[in-house]
Write a structure and sequence with these properties.
Blueprint (H helix, E strand, L loop, with lengths): L6 H9 L12 H7 L3 H30 L8 H23 L1 H7 L10 H12 L4 H30 L10 H16 L9
Helix pairs in contact: 1-7, 3-4, 3-6, 3-7, 4-5, 4-6, 7-8
């Protein structure tokens, strides 16, 4: 447990100052690809938030009550990935059942949440930083909300940029990467306030 970091501070820091996407650049592939459409971005952001919250809590429980007592630390990465894959599979079935339009819009990126490095990265940060259960849940939820905030912000900016007079050489990926760079600098501006490194 890290007594120097309260769960609320950890939650706020993981959204803004230590944003998993814009500070650590984890989960960029689906972030760039899906952010072309606001509705899909919002849906994927909520799915990633739910996945991060649930998998971080489950991985903490599995690590503390199964892996450590049985001396299976060498299997940590594999077990974390199995837990993430199981949660994503359940989430995929729920989205297909209750929102077929969102399921079709997300396409291949929904099952790719399993291999989204942001989700695996949060599990590893939780383990390496020795967070307790409550800290881990707040860290997972905050990281998910930070990821959601970044993708919906980029989707809104991309919608405005599509209507703007962008030089032809910068259209498409060029202006998107420049926009992400400006967003990352904006989030880094919060870094003097709270840090959870």
């Amino acid at each position: 447990m890290r007594p120097d970091v309260t769960p609320l501070i950890l939650f706020i820091a993981s959204i803004f100052t230590s944003n998993i996407l814009l500070s650590n650049f984890l989960g960029m592939c689906s972030f760039i690809s899906v952010s072309k459409d606001f509705k899909s971005s919002n849906g994927l952001g909520l799915a990633v938030t739910l996945t991060l919250t649930v998998t971080t809590a489950l991985n903490w429980l599995v690590y503390k009550y199964l892996i450590i007592p049985l001396g299976l630390e060498y299997l940590t990465y594999i077990v974390f990935i199995i837990v993430i894959a199981a949660v994503v599979q359940v989430l995929e079935m729920l989205i297909e059942r209750f929102s077929s339009n969102l399921y079709m819009a997300l396409g291949i990126f929904l099952p790719l949440i399993t291999v989204n490095c942001a989700i695996f990265g949060v599990a590893l940060f939780m383990q390496l930083r020795n967070y307790d259960f409550i800290q881990s849940v707040f860290f997972g939820a905050g990281s998910g909300l930070g990821w959601w905030l970044a993708i919906v912000t980029l989707a809104a900016i991309r919608k405005k940029v599509d209507a703007a007079p962008v030089p032809p050489a910068l259209k498409g990926p060029g202006i998107t990467l420049i926009t992400i760079g400006f967003m990352a600098m904006a989030f880094i501006g919060f870094s003097g306030m709270i840090s959870v490194q």
